[in-house]
Amino acid sequence: MERRPDRCAVTPYGRGAGSSRVRVFEWLDRIDTDFTVSGYLSLTDAAASRLVRHPLALARAELRLGAIARARPRRLLLHREASPLSRGWWERRLLTSAEFAVYDFDDALQWDLGEGGLARRFAPKAGKARLAVQYADRVVAGNAVLADWAAQHHHDVVVIPSCVAVEDYTPKTSYALHDPPRLGWMGSPHNEASLRLIAAPLTEVHRRTGARLTLVGTTAPSLGGLESFVDRVPWNPDTQRTAPAAMDIGLMPLPTTAYGLGKCGYKLLQYAAAGLPAAASPLGVNGELLSRFGLPAPRTQDDWTSALLALLDASAATREQLGRSAREIAGRDYSYDTWLPRWAAALELPEPGARSAPRGIPAERRPAAGPDRGVPCT
Fold first, then answer.
1. Are 129 and 159 in contact (CB under 8 A)?
2. DSSP state for residue 76 in the 8-state scheme
3. At what angle do helices 285-293 and 316-333 cross, to 10 degrees?
4. Beta strands 75-79 and 7-10: pairing type?
5. What's the half-sphere exposure (Cβ side, CA atoms, 13 Å) at 76?
6. What's the first-to-final CA gap in the chain, in angstroms?
7. Mean pLDDT per segment of 10 residues, for the chain of length 378 residues?
8. Distance between alpha carbon 83 and the CA centroid of its chain, in Å?
9. pTM flag (> 0.90)
């Protein structure tokens, strides 16, 4: 970079990855301000098996981070982590290089201690997330659980949920059950194992009703006995837009772990955007969403069986009322348009639609420590 960039966004993935698309690219598409975006390798994930296949691109990505830091951007948005190889040095260097730096995260990275393969143990996310929170000028958290933790290490924390654009989803128009009924799930291969948590209820519902599972994400079988009634649809932007409307009931089980507690409820919001009734574990922000949408919140195996059977046994009119109400709430309270002014303010950008330059921010940089909770987490 030969000149000092005004605004940079650094994210570990490309637009194809859900987290980067939802937390970075969708916002940048909606503002009148230009950003230089570094998506590391621009892949959909940073699995070690992917990284080793791109050694030259990996080296270029690391050099690019150094170039951004040396350029000392006036505004910097760092999402999740700068590099899967970093143990905090890139996050700290980038955040301290900018006049005003914002750290955004949407998962419980602070509790990700690197379980799994060697690469994850070498550079666990927990340590770098804490450093990023400490050295940012402002922290943007995806929900109140994450914000409560961040506020123990920083005095300026803002909650901005992971939003949806309901207009991007094909709305469900028929609520008569398919034959056989369609239970549906959307997500990444990494999270698909959560369906094993409700394997017994799903098997029982299939036995009683013939219901099948439509999984939008991966074509690789991974669910053992459930595979006998699974239909897989590869993820792409078109299937994300259209698949929920072709389902009867959406699913979002979560493990009762600290990491599960930090989830931002995005699947529920996607189902709601399509007007699809759903059942989900009432963990973290899911509990609030389920309450607002009037949807079942099963906790035990028996609860899941009962909840799914109740939704399938309900009248089409009842399912339609649940789905349409959820879509209305999602469009009103969890849309990009609703939250855009607050997102722009969090980054100290001009008010959306305004032409004035962002006001200056003092460049003082220090770790903010202690339990100061001066900015409410709402």
1. no
2. E
3. 120
4. parallel
5. 33
6. 38
7. 81 90 96 91 75 87 95 96 93 97 95 68 85 98 96 97 97 97 92 95 98 91 93 91 97 92 94 98 96 98 98 98 98 97 95 48 34 27
8. 18
9. no
